[in-house]
Amino acid sequence: MEVKEKSFGNGVSCIVMHSNDSVVTLLRSVKKGEVLTFAIEDSTCTLTVKEDVNFGHKLALKKIETGETILKYGESIGVATTTIEAGEHVHVHNLIGVRGRGDQ
Amino acid sequence: MTMIKGYRRPDGKVGIRNHLLLMPTVVCANQVVNRIQQQIPNSVAIPHQHGCSQVGEDKERTHKVLVGMGKNPNVGAVLVVSLGCEVMNAEQIRDEIAETGKPVIWIDIQDEGGTINTIKKGTELAKGLLAQIEHIPYEDVPLSELIVGVKCGGSDATSGLCSNPALGRASDLIINQGGSIVMGETTEIIGAEHLLAEKAVNADVKKKLYDSIAQFEQEIERMGVDMRGGNPSPGNIEGGLSSIEEKSLGCISKAGSAPLQGVVDFASEIPGKGFYFMDSPGNDIECVSGMAAAGIQLVCFTTGRGTPTGNPIVPVIKISGNEIMAKRMADNIDIDTSTVLQGKESLQQAGERIFEEIVRVAAGQETKAEILGHQEFSISRIGISL
User: Is A103 a domain residue?
Assistant: First the structure.
């Protein structure tokens, strides 16, 4: 789970930590309608932002189904509680952690 | 070989500070200790909330933390102040600290005859102790004498993206020089423990790691709560962290790439060289206090949301990858690694900058937390008050 050096470039809007990831993490706040360009390994990818989202938060890289495991850093960070479209905000309103759940 | 400066104690351990520590054994002795500290500005006091109405392992933990704070090599001498009727055994605390060979004196409020008498006596004794430690030589020592605690607190998304990985590069440099790294916060490896376990040098270490987490999760189940009410915190969540797993995955990189030599109990001395994990709560103050009690001389602390906290006897270096916060709270942040996110610097370069700051602080430069007088201290409780 190496944080890749070369991904951090000048004016980069977002970063994908691992090639298996379901999400991209924002390096600046973004507005609905923006098209983001970023690298996954050596390929260049684009993503249309579906809603205003703050710096440091995540967007779905692709469609995520209800119950699907969401990956960041190549590892599970929780499961989707609803269907999430590519470019939508992924956070506590549609992602649920599975650990530390003494209430379940 | 990188050199720093330090004070060699009678037991051979090296401290990078030379504190006179004023220690109440129980909350009831706080006011007396605080008043003695006010007479002697060069001393540090550790008032706390406990020391009585405790039993079992909880009582033992409080004892262990107090003794550990006294034994820490950054401390030159200790004045122990008890009330006289508390659960903590002040004589035993004094004796265990005295095993290090450093000067330790114990006085008791009920024996001395109340507040004013004890303040007067304590102030005279503390002045004597200060005179003793002022003559201890401040020598050049190798960096290999250093045990560095690595911690994150007030984390946001930048913690996992740059400040923790950059700190991890610095951790590797410390280990390369023969120093040691200790990571804590059992809470904050949940969801990432398998990655840490892979680094364990043997099956026993791996098992102890998993056992620490299992024990913690059992306690959460016993309480019947959803951890997400407390960790990730509201600030973590606002900063972009959605689950404890995401937080933990971003946290563990701060320890670097060294193999995991062992898992130590809370506030226990580090048994060897290299990278160790300390079973401890995620709570910032309890964890750093536990590290200080274990004998760690310096802490590197990454923060995204911004926290000013320090420790009475251990310098705490604050590191952030959040450019906006680092500027807004410039009074509190020692190193800003947001340059990595702007593409101006690599993680390796940021890591080297952190390492250079560690060397300067270990050679006497004060951290911002030290300059501002941040001396947060708290004893982790694991039982009820009677």
Answer: no
Is B231 in the A-facing interface, judged by CB distances under 8 Å?
yes
Residue A7 has pLDDT above 70, yes or no: no
The angle formed by the CA atoms of residues B80, B85 and B86, to the nearest 5 degrees, is: 65
**Mind giving me the DSSP string for B10-50?**
TTS-EESS-EEEEEESSGGGHHHHHHHHHH-TTEEE---S-
How far is the C-alpha of B146 from the C-alpha of B98, rounded, in Å?
Answer: 22
Inform me whether the C-beta atom of residue A27 falls under 8 Å from chain B C-beta atoms: yes
Q: What pLDDT score was predicted for residue A45?
A: 92
Q: Which of B157, B228, B343 sits opposite A56 (nearest CB)?
A: B157
Mean pLDDT of chain A: 88
Domain membership flag for residue A101: no
**B320 and B338 in contact (C-beta within 8 Å)?**
yes
* Range B255-267 burial, b when 16+ CB lie within 10 A, else e: bbebebbbbbebb
Q: What is the DSSP letter of B254?
A: G
Inter-chain touch A15–B304, beta carbons under 8 Å: no
Q: Provide the 8-state DSSP code for B128.
A: H
- Residue B280 makes CB contacts below 8 A (sequence gap 6+) with B184, B185, B186, B266, B286, B287, B290, B291, B380
Which residue ranges in chain B fall short of pLDDT 50?
none
**Domain of A76: which CATH number?**
2.30.130.110
A3 located within any domain: no
Per-residue b/e over B6-26, b at no fewer than 16 CB within 10 Å? bbbbeeebbbbbbbbbbbbbb
The 10s digit of each residue's pLDDT in A53-80 is 999 999 999 999 999 999 999 999 999 9
| Cβ contact B191–A75 (<8 Å) | yes
What is the residue range of A81's domain?
14-96
Q: Which residues in chain A touch residue B344, judged by CB atoms under 8 angstroms apart?
A: 10
A104 CB burial (10 A radius; 0-12, 13-18, 19+):
exposed
Q: Which two tokens stand for residue B91?
A: 């004589």
Cα distance between residue B22 and residue B45, in whole Å: 5
- Looking at the domain assignment, is residue A6 inside a domain? no
- The answer to whether the CB of B160 falls within 8 A of the CB of B249 is yes
Q: What would the pLDDT profile of B234-277 be if each residue is shown by its tens digit?
A: 899 999 999 989 999 999 999 999 999 999 999 999 999 999 99
Global pTM value? 0.92
For residues B353 and B335, is the Cβ–Cβ distance under 8 A? yes
Give yes or no for a cis peptide into B232 (omega within 30° of 0).
yes
Structural domain total, chain A? 1
